[in-house]
Amino acid sequence: MPQPLPDWGSATPLDDVSRQVAITGVGEADHSRASGRSASEIALQAVERAIADAGLAPAEVDGLMTSAGMGAQLAPAEFHSHFGTNHDLWTGPGGGMTWAATAPHAAARAIAAGEARNVVNVFSVAWASEREQMEGGPGAFHAAEPMKAVFELPFGWFPQPVYFATIARRHMHEYGTTLEQLGAIAVACRRHANLTPGALMHDKPLDLEGYLARPMLVDPLRVEDCCLISDGGAAYVMTGPERARDAAKPPAWVLGVGEGRSGAGLYWSQQGDFTATPQVFSAPAAFEMAGIAPAEVDVLTLYDPFTIVALMQIEDMGFCPKGDGGAFVEGSRLHFDGGALPYNTHGGLLSHAYVLGIAHVVEVVRQLRGEAAAQVPGARVGVYGGYTGHLASTLVLARD
Amino acid sequence: MDLPRRMPDFPLPDTEWAPGRGFFEAAARSELAIPRCAACQRLVWYPKPACPDCGGRALPWAPVSGRGALFSWATVRRPLWKPFAEKVPYTTGLVALEEDPRVRLVSLLADCAPEELHADMAVHAVFRPLAFADSDRALVVPFFAPTR
Asked: What is the tens place of the pLDDT at every residue in A183-239?
């Protein structure tokens, strides 16, 4: 077992917001390959659908949370222009990635303080379209980091598939993780996408044999280990306890929120524990706030840019001992129908859409309502794990 | 601190950027150098304004042996980034330095086939020109090769 370095990372102290806020509406924009749509156009479609799902009128939405980190922002002016409203909107940092899990914490605080009553968190990307025009995209953000520009890019250690192939290789060395085990994650996501209308890989089956027959992209990762690039988005509506109880659909209560960070920031090469994620700091805090143990989780969605990132988070969140993730995910153990831990039941970033985690939260809510396409029977507790590299976050949701 | 410039022959780096200049000056002499805290002697990587252990602000570039262990690696089999497409297949990875394995250097692997590599194998720095087809500059940088 490698010894983590002293500056590996820490949890963000978060005050208890358990059951102070619930998700009462969810909506997805259309997911597609390059579509020519703008990110704000996509965001507005998602917001419109989430508000309708919550049974609210646009004028009743008085809080708007958008990307704190990356991607286009949906400005309040665009919201008003689209919906024909002009009321005050509380705004806060939200969006996808780790913020898809932590936005409910900030929303709970704002709702408790009387700053807003119904808050929408939205995230969208048009990276498939932007990639064709050679601007933006997921690599550009990292290429601008000064130490990467000088000490990593010249040596070909770029972009993200190279980082995570290197991490996967070390995980295989330390823990005996196999290619078949990484493949089991990709196959579970694909099977769930095959069942999910609107998933980009809906019509493209993949079994383990087919996975293993595919060529290496960045050895030891194949294309099938890597997330899609797509245009799309999603949104969810949050409200306080009184309104949530009268909502149009059963509320998904926020039981716990956690956030952890790596001391190495965005420099994976220098991360204290190279084969772990800051979920080791985030998940225990979220489960403690929620008052539940990992074994009580009925459905899990994880920000999954690469199969190895899902495997590490499953370990780091305590679903199995560190290093046992490979055996934990084998075969059909992540499948929605009888798996030990139903995982990314919509297909995840690998096979559903690359909307950076916001659709993962939507999927958890649908599972708790019993509305999902690949429905886990009787799902009561659902968790989303967010990840950006330097940050990880955890959102524990439950139905009544 | 100022940001490194994006060079016309990107992805070759801005070797004049103050926080990294000592690395490339040493490499030109076929030496590997890492900032070392003058107060507590810790090697500090990546370069930082202060030592994370003791806060010391004097961090001169110190020569190191160039020996290390291959921490991990990835072999790029299909082009996924235009500037390196001409080098595919190539193997890039991380080397943990003998003097302090907390220092992980990103580098290219040389003089070996990917099938020969295994984690924690002994490697050492070899200084070679790094060049790209459409640029005139050849920058000497440390690659790492298996120590046989």
From this structure: 999 999 999 999 999 999 999 999 999 999 999 999 999 999 999 999 999 999 999
Q: Are B94 and B104 in contact (CB under 8 A)?
A: yes
Question: Each residue of A321-360: pLDDT tens digit?
Answer: 999 999 999 999 999 999 999 999 999 999 999 999 999 9
Which one-letter DSSP state was computed for residue A333? T
| A53 within 8 A of A78, measured Cβ to Cβ | no
Task: Kindly state whether residues B92 and B50 are assigned to the same domain.
Answer: no
> Is A169 close to B84, i.e. CB distance below 8 A?
no
Placement of tokens 């969605």 in the chain: A301
Q: Are residues B36 and B69 in the same domain?
A: no
Q: Are residues B82 and B139 in the same domain?
A: yes
Distances (CA, A) of A90 to A51, A123, A267, A380: 16, 17, 34, 31
Q: Considering only alpha carbons, which residue of chain A is nearest residue B94?
A: A269
- Tell whether domain A22-132+230-245 is in CATH 3.40.47.10: yes
| Whole-complex ipTM | 0.98
Concerning whether A354 is annotated as a catalytic residue, the answer is yes
- Going from the C-alpha of A60 to that of each of A44, A57, A64, the distances in angstroms are 16, 5, 12
Phi, then psi, of A255 in degrees rounded to 5: -95, -35
B6 belongs to a structural domain = no
Contacts of A221 in chain B (CB under 8 A): 74
CB contact under 8 Å between B102 and A5, yes or no, is: yes
Which of B7, B106, B132 is most worth mutating to test chain A (most A CB atoms within 10 A of its CB)? B106
Q: Containing domain of residue B80, as a range?
A: 65-148
- N-to-C CA span, chain A: 41
Main-chain phi, psi angles of A370, to 5 degrees: 80, 25
Reported in sequence order, the residue ranges of chain A that DSSP labels E, i.e. its strands, are 9-11, 22-28, 63-67, 90-94, 118-126, 216-219, 221-222, 231-239, 252-262, 299-302, 381-387, 391-398
